[in-house]
Design goal:
Layout (H helix, E strand, L loop, with lengths): L3 E3 L3 H11 L5 H19 L5 E7 L4 E7 L4 E7 L6 H5 L6 E2 L1 E6 L6 E7 L8 E5 L2 E2 L3 H12 L4 E9 L1 H10 L4 E7 L2 E2 L5 E2 L5 H6 L3
Parallel strand pairs: 1-11, 4-5, 4-6, 4-8, 8-10, 9-10, 10-11
Antiparallel strand pairs: 2-3, 6-7, 12-13
Bound molecules: uracil.
């Protein structure tokens, strides 16, 4: 069974409050989204395996732990997920990048694929799918399904703000996927926005609307 991790940390609360503030402009919003992505990535990588290696310090030689060459794919869901890429790459610089594009079909109202490009060796990588908002869970579930269909096995989902029904929906459909969240809010409104939320993450990141 997967785990749902809501990261409790003063820096995360503080930075999330900056994102929520409607007076925060796009430049600050982008910077803080990246900072939060970095902080969440710290938790996502907590179980990465280590190996012992011999290192010569300026004083002596010792055996120390380094990452066991874990292969990672960072996969933002377009477009808001792009806002988290630089933050994650700043601590996992050797990750490869994939991209997933989904639009909402006007008839079915379901997320529908329009773009998917993932690293060829996706089956061997820890796949970190990113989207700042987990609202109904429909988009996230479809993004995870697309990665699984192309061979992804170790899949983790990272978001900044989630609604309980979104967490529940992803957990139900993909019980093998661990979910990492900065903050959880109470509910969705009739337009599918998280309340109290932070508005439309894509618009606020890119200054559209
Ligand atoms: N997507 C957003 O950008 N904001 C929400 O509140 C919900 C989904």
């Amino acid at each position: 069974m997967s785990k749902v991790t809501v990261i409790e940390h003063p820096l995360i609360h503080h930075k999330m409050a900056i994102l929520r503030d409607k007076h925060t402009g796009s430049k600050s919003f982008r910077e803080v989204v990246n900072e939060l992505a970095l902080l969440v990535a710290y938790e996502v990588t907590r179980d990465f395996p280590l190996v012992e290696t011999e290192i010569e310090t300026p004083i002596t030689t010792g055996t120390f732990k380094v990452l066991a060459n874990e292969k990672v794919a960072v996969i933002p869901v377009l477009r808001a997920g792009l806002g988290m890429v630089d933050g994650i790459l700043s601590i996992i610089p050797n990750a490869k990048l994939g991209h997933i594009g989904l639009y909402r079909n006007h008839d079915t109202l379901l997320p529908t694929e329009y773009y998917c490009k993932l690293p060829d060796d996706i089956a061997e990588r820890v796949c970190i799918i990113m989207d700042p908002m987990l609202a109904t869970g429909n988009t996230t579930n479809e993004a995870i399904r697309m990665v699984k269909e192309r061979g992804g096995k170790d899949i983790r989902f990272v978001c900044l703000l989630a609604a309980p029904q979104g967490i529940e929906a992803v957990h139900r459909e993909h019980p093998d996927v661990d979910i990492y969240i900065a903050n959880v809010d109470g509910k969705l409104n009739e337009h599918g926005y998280i309340v109290p939320g932070l508005g439309d993450a894509g618009d606020r990141l890119f200054g559209t609307k």
